Amino acid sequence: MTSQSLWQPQQVHVNLLTRVSVLPTSLAWHQTSFPGIWFGCFESNHEVQDHPTTMLTRFDPGGFFPHHGHPGGEEILVLSGEFSDETGVHPPGTYMLNPEGFNHRPYSEEGCLTFVKLRQHGGKTRHQVRRRIFEEPWQTGINPQIRVQPLYEQVGFSEKVWVEQWLPGTQLLDVIETEIKEIFVIQGTWCDELGCYPAGSWLRYPVNSPYSPSTEAGCLIYVKTYPIADETERFVVGDDFQHPEEAILWDQELALGRAMAF
């Protein structure tokens, strides 16, 4: 962690035409106004609740968000600890996609760390997804050294999400993407010609950006691809994060949480 300060609206890696890599040691952590909640943003455009955002969210023991909805949808991958909401208690390796219209009050009794993507899954006809990647079967990919587990793909929507398990010594040469590709390293170390990226690293490759990935000891990575028309298309202000009918309850729960902290 490079810092622990109060979150301030800011732009982080908004140009989708440039390659980006963020190591966990360079990620800045920010305390939020929510009890026991910290953000570490990989990409954001001003307020994280109002724009497409990719980040780590850390819950201290007992940390919680008041009840809220998710305009633009939400992805969550539990990295450590247990993440809980009205749908259950979710251990490490749980992948969730919550479409527009989903509401919850997330919390963690013991504390947890999650990889989160906000406002990148518009459309109320999206399927809700719950998967446990450490319990589901793997498929052999095009390269026999890489095993694949699909997480999300749906007719009518362009995004694809999956996880890959790279065996030790795997190497690919001159990969060129036809869509934006994002990678988050879940376990192990993943490398390209510009460096090596341990667990907790996030990378984004633009279209037509050649690279040669490899791993010496093996790794597990989250992968997402999507087309893009220009560098500004995804970063559009959406509806208010807080639905009007939730505003009073949100303020009451937030005030109660602050009172209990003292």
UniProtKB/TrEMBL annotation:
Q: Pfam families in the record, alphabetically?
A: Cupin_7
GO function terms (MF aspect): manganese ion binding
InterPro entries in alphabetical order: ChrR-like_cupin_dom, Germin_Mn-BS, RmlC-like_jellyroll, RmlC_Cupin_sf
Q: Which residues form the ChrR-like cupin domain?
A: 20-120, 135-228
Signal peptide segment? none
Matching entries from Gene3D superfamilies are given as: Jelly Rolls
Family matches, as PROSITE patterns? GERMIN
* Name of the protein: Cupin domain-containing protein
